[in-house]
Write a structure and sequence with these properties.
Helix 1 packs antiparallel against helix 5 and helix 5 packs parallel to helix 8. The protein has one domain. 74% of the residues lie in helices and 0% in strands. By secondary structure, the chain is mainly alpha-helical. The longest helix has 43 residues. It starts with 21 loop residues before the first helix and ends in a 6-residue tail after the last helix.
């Protein structure tokens, strides 16, 4: 009697390459990106904390001269007061808007996001690490999603430092801000930063050049800021204000009025479009390798 023939199972080895799930791929790439940028984030966090403390330290003198300050600013042309956010400068919300949220905070958050977006894939190509990264069993879409998540988390980390500085630093100088409005202003300005970061990521995916990605995003951010700021002073610029992302983020004065749903949706929608474009461009390009 012959022995029964056993089915032959496919051979496996302990060195067989196992592809991680998509979620784990995104987490790994995100963690690596954050680990590479923590020094930079620490510096930006320290800068925003110092900036907040300095501006808060000046507020008591502004509050003491509130009446004379209002009379002085009333002599300015209305367009000039609108351009520089001086209409309610003597109030707590107006002061923080004019000194921090109208320019300095957007500059910091846009810089954090654009730096991360430009380095996402273009930085990998310029440093010669793209061939190693994309030879791993990780989908290009997962790489981009992980890099984008690290960009958002970096902006959120700076936001936390900003909010803690203002919430903890306001009571000693008798500056009263609505916490909900402060959160709304921070969210809207953060979306503004992330939107320009997504633009840098898309340009980096298109060109593979970090300088081009940074230049395009910062250049368009500067143009959008000038259109929004100079609009009240130049009639021909006013029709273009509605197309400026700065207008979507700040025109409703969120520190005084809270969330602007339309502005938030516009910024979020444009960010998603840019990330989708970056994903498509990254899939279609032959990446530069060493």
């Amino acid at each position: 009697m012959s022995a029964a023939v056993q089915p032959v199972m496919p051979a496996t080895t302990e060195h067989e390459l196992v592809t991680p799930r998509a979620g784990r791929q995104v987490l790994v790439v995100c963690g690596r990106a954050l680990a590479e940028r923590w020094h930079s984030l620490l510096g930006w966090g320290a800068a925003i904390a110092l900036l907040s403390v300095l501006q808060l330290s000046v507020y008591p003198s502004v509050a003491r001269s509130q009446k004379s300050m209002q009379d002085f600013l009333a002599q300015y042309p209305e367009g000039l007061r609108q351009a520089f956010g001086l209409e309610d400068y003597a109030t707590a919300a107006g002061y923080v808007h004019a000194e921090l949220y109208s320019l300095m905070v957007p500059i910091v958050l846009i810089s954090v996001a654009v730096g991360a977006g430009a380095a996402a894939t273009a930085g990998e190509e310029e440093h010669g690490t793209a061939d190693l990264l994309f030879s791993l069993p990780v989908a290009r879409g997962a790489v981009l999603a992980g890099k984008a998540a690290a960009m958002v988390l970096g902006v959120l980390a700076v936001d936390v430092v900003l909010l803690l500085s203002l919430v903890l630093g306001s009571p000693p100088v008798d500056l009263h801000l609505d916490t909900g409005h402060l959160l709304a202003a921070t969210v809207q300005v953060s979306l503004l930063g992330v939107m320009f970061g997504a633009l840098a990521l898309a340009v980096g995916a298109l060109t593979g050049r970090r300088g081009a990605a940074t230049g395009a995003a910062i250049g368009l951010a500067l143009l959008a800021f000038l259109v929004e700021t100079l609009g009240p002073l130049a009639d021909w610029l006013q029709p273009w204000q509605r197309w400026s992302p700065f207008h979507w983020a700040l025109s409703n004065r969120p520190l005084g009025h809270g969330f602007d749903t339309g502005g938030v949706l516009a910024l979020a929608a444009l960010t998603l479009v840019l990330l989708a474009a970056a994903t498509l461009l990254l899939h279609r390009r032959d990446l530069r390798t060493t």
